[in-house]
């Protein structure tokens, strides 16, 4: 049995950052945000297509790097949404559906808007009860 990588002088992948709770710790707000039953269960094929689109985009824009979203690249989400909407129902030259790219861009646009607004994940539905 050989030495562990860190003792053998081999590069060691750093530990991932600790998980931070993205949604509010408030139980009512969490229950009013049904991520699995309210999104994933409704759109499993679409979510898988967007995940494949995300991987293809990472391979194109960040070759050889682990899957990640470089938020400094390609910031024109609204314009891209329009272009992919025009070509919905067909495939782009890389074999990815335009509708999957549209959905990825729509999620990117929403994510950046929410981050800019300092959204905490607290559901409006939970605040009215």
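^ structure tokens above, recovered residues below v
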């Amino acid at each position: 049995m050989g030495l562990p990588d860190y003792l053998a002088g081999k590069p060691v992948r750093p530990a991932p950052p600790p998980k931070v709770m993205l949604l509010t710790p408030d139980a009512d707000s969490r229950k009013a945000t049904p991520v699995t039953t309210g999104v994933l269960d409704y759109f499993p094929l679409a979510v898988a297509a967007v995940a494949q689109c995300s991987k293809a985009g990472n391979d194109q824009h960040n070759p050889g790097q682990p899957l990640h979203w470089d938020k400094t690249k390609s910031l024109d989400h609204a314009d891209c949404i329009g272009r992919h909407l025009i070509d919905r129902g067909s495939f782009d030259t890389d074999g990815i559906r335009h509708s999957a790219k549209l959905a990825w861009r729509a999620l990117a646009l929403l994510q950046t808007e929410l981050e800019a607004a300092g959204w905490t994940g607290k559901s409006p539905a939970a605040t009215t009860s």
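The first helix runs from residue 5 to 8.
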